[in-house]
Amino acid sequence: MEMKTVGIRELKNNLSAYVRQVRDGEEIQVTDRGEVVAELRPPTPPRARPSMHPGVAALAQRGILTVGEANSPALYESLSPLMPPGSAVELLSEERKEPA
Question: What's the pTM value of the predicted model, to 2 decimals?
Answer without folding.
Answer: 0.48
